[in-house]
Amino acid sequence: MKDEEGLRRQVGADLEALNSLMAVASAHVALQREHEVTPAYQAVAMLAVSGPDIHAAARDHTWPAAWQKVVARLREQIEQRQSQQTAWQKGQPHSHSPADRRAK
Predict the structure, then answer these.
(1) What are the Cα distances from residue 43, in Å, to 17, 32, 63, 66, 103?
(2) What is the pTM of this model?
């Protein structure tokens, strides 16, 4: 990878940003390149947080693009969990639509 250090910094910065939204006890990130699969680049992340862990995976034609998809999916899950907690605290029902359970 040409800019491995730049990608490491980006991953770290993105994890810090997610941690500012929800406390993350630990994070496991894997970046893989599979030559026989298209798109070849895959990013996977698992965040250990209070309650069920949050995880996401994505593929794209570059590691940065795959990673940005993962970050967006993690952010969506965090925001969804926070809105559910807010609704629960206010005593409002919240819905569970099929989109809430889509494959991550």
Answers:
(1) 18, 6, 7, 6, 15
(2) 0.79
In a domain, 26, yes or no: yes
Number of structural domains in the chain: 1
3-state secondary structure of 80: helix
Lowest mean pLDDT among 17-21, 42-46, 61-65, 93-97: 93-97
d(CA 81, CA 79): 5
pLDDT tens by residue, 7-34: 899 999 999 999 999 999 999 999 999 9
Measured CA to CA, the distance from residue 41 to residue 54 in angstroms comes to 21
- Asked if residues 4 and 60 have their Cβ atoms less than 8 Å apart, the reply is no
Domain hosting 87: range is 4-92
Q: Is residue 20 part of a domain?
A: yes
Residue type, 63: W
